[in-house]
Specification:
heterodimer; A: about 100 residues; mainly alpha; Arc Repressor Mutant, subunit A; 2 strands; about 10% strand; globular; B: about 220 residues; about 80% helix
């Protein structure tokens, strides 16, 4: 019987993925785009975005139609930069976050 | 001959240890940011290797400086003790690195007796400024061959893991780590064989230095990215 290996994503990995989507998009991004980009359920995305907003990693903007959109902050960019370095360092040894 | 040998060993080990400590510093810096267990293990592994090399190097240097005043038996005991300390630190480092790849039960470090009588005699001979066989100098500087064999086995495992990582990624940074471990393994094999042919001790240190320089290059590349 073939056993399927589930890939576990740490909280830090998910935060990095969300920040990466925001950087890739370049401007304010809606939750649906982030949800697909970071491969998350809506419930988890809402939880993560609230926490990231609280920590100053993302900023929530409200559009004319009252829809929430998110942008990465300078603090978020710094974290993403450091995370990419850490990822590179660990990957050199064949390890992952 | 003994003075030249100790001077070479001291300078190489301090240099290699410094690079290992620098790698440990960056692993700690990254660990403090993300509190990731693997980074803590990398930090402790490189710290252990670095401290072992620096302490052994400085001890050999200390013995070199005070060779004329030191009693041969005391010099022998100091060098022997520090070579065991070096092995313990290196083995601990390699075991920690192995643990980051696989959760294996902790291995017991074996103990073995070396030709201590000959080494003690060597120091007495050195004190009397008589020519000595270079292979006896190796006995002074390195832990016994059985312990070198244990470290070699650990390094072969780490080389296999890092080579497999490089072959699956085919990128520069995994190559540098793979290169480092292959060279550390080759250096260890040289140290093991140097009990029979002393020239391999020098070759081993040159190869080991290249391995640590490769780690340094990795750190510089990561920090520049």
């Amino acid at each position: 019987m073939r056993r399927r290996r589930a890939r576990y994503r740490s909280k830090l990995r998910i935060i990095t993925d969300i920040l990466a989507v925001l950087v890739e998009e370049g401007g304010p991004v809606g939750p649906t785009r982030i949800l697909y980009g970071a491969n998350l359920s809506h419930e988890r995305l809402v939880r993560y975005l609230a926490e990231m907003e609280e920590k100053g990693l993302v900023e929530r903007l409200t559009g004319e139609e009252g829809r929430a959109r998110y942008v990465i902050t300078e603090r978020g960019r710094r974290l993403l930069r450091e995370m990419r370095r850490i990822e590179e360092f660990l990957q050199a040894f064949g390890l992952e976050i | 001959m003994l003075a030249w040998f100790l001077l070479f060993s001291t300078s190489m080990e301090v240099l290699e240890g410094a690079v290992a400590l620098l790698t440990a510093y960056y692993a700690l810096k990254f660990y403090r940011l993300v509190r990731e267990d693997k980074l803590l293990k990398l930090f402790l592994a490189f710290l252990s290797m670095g401290l072992g090399l620096v302490v052994h190097g400085i001890t050999a240097g200390g013995v070199l400086i005070s060779l004329a005043r030191l009693r041969p038996a005391l010099a022998f005991l100091t060098l022997r003790g520090s070579s065991y300390a070096l092995f313990t630190c290196e083995a601990a480092g390699y075991i920690l690195l192995s643990l980051t790849y696989a959760r294996l039960p902790r291995e017991e470090e074996g103990g073995a007796e070396g030709p201590e009588g000959s080494a003690a005699l060597l120091l007495a001979t050195a004190a009397a400024a008589r020519p000595v066989r270079p292979e006896l100098l190796v006995v002074l500087m390195r832990p016994p061959p059985v312990l070198e064999g244990i470290a070699l086995a650990l390094l072969i495992y780490l080389s296999a893991r890092t080579t497999s990582n490089f072959l699956s990624r085919k990128e520069v940074n995994p190559f540098l780590v793979c290169f480092s471990f292959l060279f550390l393994t080759a250096a260890r094999a040289c140290f093991l064989l140097s009990f029979a042919l002393a020239a391999l001790y020098i070759t081993g240190h040159v190869i080991q230095l290249l391995a640590f320089l490769s780690f340094l290059l990795l750190v510089l590349r990561v920090m520049r990215s």
